[in-house]
Amino acid sequence: MAAADDWVARTAAQVQTEGERRYPGEVPTCASGISPSGPVHLGNLRELMTPHLIADEVRRNGAPCRHILSWDDYDRLRRVPAGVPDSFNEYVGRPLTGVPDPCGEHENYAEHFKDPLREALDLLGIQVTEISQTEMYTSGAYTDQIVLAMRRRADIGAVLARYRTRRAEPDADDEDDPKAAVYYPFRPYCATCGRDDTIVTAFDDDTTEITYICGCGAVVGPVPIAEVAGKLAWKVDWPMRWAYEHVTFEPAGNDHASPGSSFTVGEELVKKIFGGEIPVHFGYAFVGSSGGSSKMSGSRGGAPTPLDALEIFEPALLRWLYDRRRPEKSITIAFNAEVIRTYDEWDALSQRVAEGTAEQGDYANYVRASSTSDGPLPGTPRPLRFSTLASVADITAGDQTQMLRIVRDLTADDPVDSLDEVRPRLDCAQAWVTKYVPPADRTRVREAPDTTRLAALTESERDAIKLLVNGMGDDWSLAGLTTLLYGIPKLQAGLPITAKPTRELSKAQRTWFILLYELLLVGQDTGPRLPTLLLALGQDKVRSLLAPG
Ligand SMILES: [Zn+2]
Ligand SMILES: [Zn+2]
């Protein structure tokens, strides 16, 4: 199959040629940046997934490529997110790594929010080189760049001012907005209180000594800036790192890619101040979700996290939800009944790939989703339909022995030996039923027969039930029950069980199925596919509900 010509293939080719032109002989670098200031949600995953797909495409082409994840863990805590105690308000203004861990199991606040993302990246096969900005800043790695930026503060201030005046509304949260008449691109973390409620009052270009005051009353300096904790303003810090890390490709959310945004400002600063070029870049659109649940870990903070999604979606499928969309298209990840359709689409694509009938673009997306340059991602060895597994999990309330019995009956031709063969999909289905299916839509099997309805059965209904109860044991399998259930209205019409369907027949089948749902389930005239439902209930239970006594 010819190589795909899509955004991944084109960007990867660009990264290879641009990387070679800019930094000859070096491994090209793709970059992601994440601020661990709260739960990292599914939208942020696009910040990782996009460079991953590009870097991995380069590697698939046989060349090395580096994917760095810059943790913006030296950023100030701006506000306390939902789910974190209000008492953390006293740490606002401190670097994220200087705030205690909310749960007590991590080194600090930043690590608390990094860990779940690391776990998700591992499951998704996304390998990154992590760079902690705290480590970079506190080790002195950026001292030359900081001194350079401070000496060129007037030039930097002029660039920022030019773009700032174009904005209609000043951003109250924008740390780049100067507090003092003279602009300094470096903001110290106060040596006394640890917060960045500081104003630089002087910088000596020759001695590189800095003086600042803090809202807590501290007056510090002049001291060598190399000995002062602090960081460059975001819009200066970003282009500094493009140059420092030799970044060839870095996308960002659409809000950073609009005119006057961080990219525009960064492009000027990296060229004028830091001696580099703006990376190959584009903006990517929003990732939203629908049909969430109060039981999601991220929900207290609003959006679901990658781990929430991985509870419901196999890793390859989640990758596919990102890789099949062009960056400028938004993505909605549904946690409601849509999940079944998503799995069915994925299975249909897998089928087309196996048969060799997938279109080129679909094939490329499938390969990128289900494998990395290191090889295939672990999947479900026997991927039974998600809706079937959801029914099984629902009807059995997750009972392992019962689930294995049903799954065996469902696969009578080549029986599943162990539930591990249907994992992780079975676990995904079970989590979905438990957390996202509304109680009213769950399958509730009758405990006792509906004697009122049974007493009111018509002659024809009674006859149909007799045909089912007497015949179901002859071929107690998915195929056998399917033939029998659809065949009973045919037999009643005096036709052979193999008769071709007609409109008349399908009407009779629908009425017949509704009767069965009513007799088997509580308050429902629809439910899991009837052959699956019967297998799940077992012959004794079916007989006790349909023909008691
Ligand atoms: Zn923690
Ligand atoms: Zn202070």
Strand order of the largest sheet: 3-2-1-9
Q: If you average the pLDDT, what whole number results?
A: 92
Low-confidence spans: pLDDT under 50, at least 5 residues? 168-173, 296-301
Number of helices: 22
Strand fraction: 5-15%
SSE map:
Layout: H1 7-22, E1 29-34, H2 42-60, E2 66-71, H3 109-124, E3 129-132, H4 133-139, H5 143-151, H6 153-164, E4 186-188, E5 198-203, E6 209-214, E7 219-224, E8 230-232, H7 234-245, E9 247-249, E10 252-253, H8 254-257, H9 262-272, E11 283-284, E12 287-290, H10 306-312, H11 315-323, E13 331-334, H12 338-355, H13 360-370, E14 371-372, E15 375-376, H14 386-396, H15 400-410, H16 425-436, H17 451-455, H18 459-471, H19 478-492, H20 503-520, H21 530-537, H22 539-546
Parallel strand pairs: 1-2, 1-9, 2-3, 10-11, 12-13
Antiparallel strand pairs: 4-8, 5-6, 6-7, 14-15
Bound molecules: zinc ion (2 copies).
One zinc ion binds at residues 101-103, 105-106, 112.
